Every structure is written in structure tokens, then in C-alpha cells.
Amino acid sequence: MNITKGRIIAMKRYLVLLLLLASLTSGVYGKGHRYASRADAIAAQIHDPSSRYVVVACHRGDWRNWPENSIPAIESVIRMGADIVEIDIHMTKDSVLVLCHDDNVRRTTNFAGVFRAEKDKSPRIADMTLAEIKRLSLKRAHGATIDTLQIPTLEEALLCTRGRICVNIDKGFDYYDEVIRVTEKLGVTSQVLIKSSHPIRKVAARRAPYRNNMMYMPVVNIQTKNGGKLFDSYMESGTVPVAYEVCWSRNDDGSFREAARKIVSQGSKVWVNTIWASLCGGDGNDDDAAFTAKDPGDVYRPYIDAGVSMIQTDRPELLIRWLKKTGHHRLRY
């Protein structure tokens, strides 16, 4: 491991934390700080490897009650007290970034009804203009169309989140240049976390032209050949990202706990996805298991004990309630 390089990167992260602390509006009060915004306070927690605060990320917003990746879905998780809203982006034919998980709008909108007269019209976002996208209405998870809700642009979403909640942009690293132009325009670059499974060198090259960069997190599936190789490259090079998104499908080899130990020792955060069992060790380890358990802590506590401090969930109210009860979700700003 390149110890010198690791220390330099750790020092840079420490300086970022100091810059965030410098955004205080009126100094220290009580035992906490007054930050310029709630989102700045959350970002400071993400950058602080010693913090015991557990950051709650909401998968596609509150998709159980609103269309996924919609403005109301984002507003709902902000009201719940979540720390991060995870969104997905794609680019339209006329080069506008919009929120959608799929690369097409067939599942999430009333596309078939709007374009029924144009049988050869492609539902792919890359083949549609923003004006065509805005003709569509979003659907709830159970398929009901909501006529008043359209697919938002990335800029519209970030205007909604600015200062209120941090944002994790999924499926977005390949649009890094376009995304950062929007975040810089709105002044929210420090409140946005972006991720990928790309090699260290490719990530560094993409970020190098910019003085201000979004937070970055590698995604490592530690039980696959490529994921294990990527994780080892970070450990061996001494590169210290703000966090790692760790995925694993089974708990029989102890690889997750060992990876978490290394990450915490390095000074990074551990992010896990409890949204699906296949991403967090198998059945009994996910949000649905927590929802049906007598005590949600039977599912969530082992992650905290392993050093996890960032959890992406599909059950934000349940997780936040349990974290507050156990003293892991008290944000002061």
C-alpha cells in the first residue's frame, strides 16, 4: 500500500471537512454547529469518519406513495427526515438530463397511451426530446397514472433538494461533465454524491479538470472477481474515497465484515443497500425482513456493529424511527 499517497488523500478529505465547517452561519452553539443548511450538515457527517451518525438514503425517493424519481417522492423523504435521496438519470435526445431509472419510459409513464397513434415511436429516453418527455404522466408503483406529475429534469430535482437533503446520483458517472455543470450552476456540488464501478484511474481523470467535485463513492461487489479486484486496488493504492458502496450476496465467507473493517480503518464510510436481500447477504438481511421482525434492530443492528454508517433503504420511516430510538440519527445544524 502507498502509505504516503493514502495520507495525502486522507488530509485532502480532512481539508474538505474543514471547508464544510467553515460554512457555519453564526458559529458554535451548544455541543453542535450551525451550518448554512441541513444538506451541508449531512455532508459534514458523510465526510467525518469518526461520526456515529447513520446516514439514511432513500431509494428512488418515497416510491411506495409517489411515482419513483418524482418531485413529490423527493419531498416526502425530506419530510421523513432522510439524509440522502437516491435518483437515477438519463439524457434526452436534445441533451437534457432527466430522472428515470430505466433507459426507457414504458414502465414508469403512460407512454403507450400518449403515442398510440405513432406506433413506431421509441420509448427510449435517448430517442425523445424533453418536450416529448414532458407530454407524459408518471405512474405510481402499482401502475396508476397521475396526470399532474411529469418526469423532472435533473435541474428541477436539484432545485427541490438544494440545502435540504443530499443527493446520490445513480447511473450518472458517465454524464459527469453534464451533471457538474448543473450542480455548479445551482451551487449544490458539495451536496451531491456520485458513484460508479470504474477503475481508480478513470475516475481520477474524469474529476481532474474540476476545482470543485461532487463526493465520489466506488461501488464494489466484493464477492465477484471484478468487484474484489476494484476493492483491492483501492486498498493497495492507499486511495481513500469518502465512502464505499459494498454489495455481497451471501454471508458464509465473512468477506463483508472483513471489507467493512478495512474500510473503517482506512477512514472511509461503509454504505450498504438493504433494499434487496441479494445486495446485503441474502434472505433475512433486508428491509422486508426488518419490516416483519418484532424488532427492526434484529436486521439493522448487525450492520451498525460492523461499522456501517450509511444505509440505502426502501423502508425509510422504519429505519429512521429505529435509528432515532437508538441514538444514531440526531442531526444538529
The global form is globular
The helicity comes to 25-40%
Radius of gyration: 20 Å
CATH class of the domain at 52-87 and 155-325: Alpha Beta
SSE topology string: HEEHEHEEHHEEHEHEHEHEHEHHEH
Approximate strand percentage? 15-25%
| Count of alpha and pi helical runs | 13
Spatial order of the strands in the main sheet?
3-4-8-9-10-11-12-13
Question: Could you give the distance between the termini?
Answer: 37 Å
Mean pLDDT: 92
In the predicted model, the low-confidence regions spanning at least 5 consecutive residues are 21-31
Largest sheet: 8 strands, parallel, barrel
* Helix and strand composition category: alpha/beta
The CATH architecture term of the domain at 52-87 and 155-325 is Alpha-Beta Barrel
Full CATH superfamily name of the domain at 52-87 and 155-325: Phosphatidylinositol (PI) phosphodiesterase
Secondary structure layout plus pairing:
Blueprint: H1 3-21, E1 28-29, E2 32-33, H2 38-47, E3 55-59, H3 71-80, E4 84-91, E5 97-99, H4 111-114, H5 130-133, E6 138-139, E7 145-146, H6 154-161, E8 166-170, H7 176-186, E9 192-196, H8 200-207, E10 215-221, H9 225-237, E11 243-247, H10 255-266, E12 269-273, H11 287-292, H12 297-305, E13 310-313, H13 316-325
Parallel strand pairs: 3-4, 3-13, 4-8, 8-9, 9-10, 10-11, 11-12, 12-13
Antiparallel strand pairs: 1-2, 4-5, 6-7
Helix pairs in contact: 1-2, 3-6, 6-7
Task: Describe the 3D structure.
- By secondary structure, the chain is α/β, with parallel strands linked by helices.
- It has a domain at 52-87 and 155-325: Alpha-Beta Barrel (TIM Barrel).
- The chain has helices at residues 3-21, 38-47, 71-80, 111-114, 130-133, 154-161, 176-186, 200-207, 225-237, 255-266, 287-292, 297-305, 316-325; strands at residues 28-29, 32-33, 55-59, 84-91, 97-99, 138-139, 145-146, 166-170, 192-196, 215-221, 243-247, 269-273, 310-313.
- Helix 1 runs antiparallel to helix 2 and helix 6 (154-161) crosses helix 7 (176-186).
- The longest helix is centred in the first third of the chain and has 19 residues, at 3-21.
